[in-house]
Amino acid sequence: MAHTRISCPIDRSREGTYRATGTGSGLIEGFFRWPLVFRFIKGAIHGAIIVPVLFHALFTAFVVYLDLYIFDTVGLPSSIIPSLSIVVGLMLVFRNQTSYNRFWDGRSSLTTLTTCIRNLVRTILTNGYSTSRPLRQDEKEDIERTIRILMAIPYAVKNHLRAEYGAAFYSFGDDVGEDGVAAYNPDYANLLPKGLEGHEDEGLTLPFQLSFFIDGFIKRGVERGWYHAPGASQMQAQLNSLLDAVGKMEMIRLTPIPVAHLIHQKQVLALFGCVLPFGMVDDLGWWTVPIVSLVIFTLYGIEGIGSQLEDPFGYDRNDIKMDAIVGDSKMEIDVVLSEWRKLMSFVEAETPRTESRCVEDHSDRDIEK
């Protein structure tokens, strides 16, 4: 059987999510990418290092001018450059390695968070029922409320790591809607329990606050006979792993690289950039300016990358794409929850038929007897 291939223009509005644009140009924009060597704005570090590079270029030009037109020579032995280069190289390697480890650990912890949420959603929806009777309406609402709280946790973690305290509420719940209920951020619409009040101004983080709702649901599930002890223990372990991942991301966010190291690194880079022209000017003349500028561009670029990766939870282009990851997680669970509702509707529709058949079977047996 032949398959018809349908092409659809796409626009990558954010990493991990695609949507149709309906225009031919969107197809080109979606697939065409400038080679990395020609990128100077998006994702590049140039904007952050242009000032020190220009400063060192001007300083180098001043040194060359002094050497050629004012003094006989201002040059220093070129042998000093290798010894200083070793020190600068070691410091930059340490900085970049440390920063990338923080970036990788943050991404790994975020993956652990989403994985734990997936496991909890799967376990709740596949085991949250009793074979002896259909689910009551309040029980179905309890399950849906818990799933939506799980959907809200990644948003709460994202805002918490970005120090956007109270982002789930407008003015920490002081604003109320027409129904008298605290107004929520649109990202949290229909996710948080009605009437929930945030206490982040008192030191209680929203992710930790929401975890109590999940813990309470597990306890109710055991009492209803939905989960046996080992299953409930596994769910508790997933919840503990979730909070452990949040704690690791908090550690990355709240434990910066020691300021003494940052100060010394900046000073060593500046010192090296100022000494470098004196070691080259006698041999290169005016060529010293572009050569020094190239070296400084390379070194400050490496240092700038490490600076961006140090806190990977922000809005920089090189940070973890938290908005996309959190949005995709919500979309995924939304689909699962929608399918669960369809399944529950089907089960409820089939239950009366099954019961009537059982009654008919019993009646037939009584007649035969």
TrEMBL record:
GO terms for cellular component: membrane. Pfam families: Bestrophin_2. It is a multi-pass membrane protein. GO terms for molecular function: chloride channel activity. Its main location: membrane. Keywords: Ion transport, Membrane, Transmembrane, Transmembrane helix, Transport. It is found in: Membrane. The chain crosses the membrane at residues 43-68, 74-94, 284-302. It comes from the Eukaryota. This is Putative membrane protein. It comes from Aspergillus oryzae (strain 3.042) (Yellow koji mold).
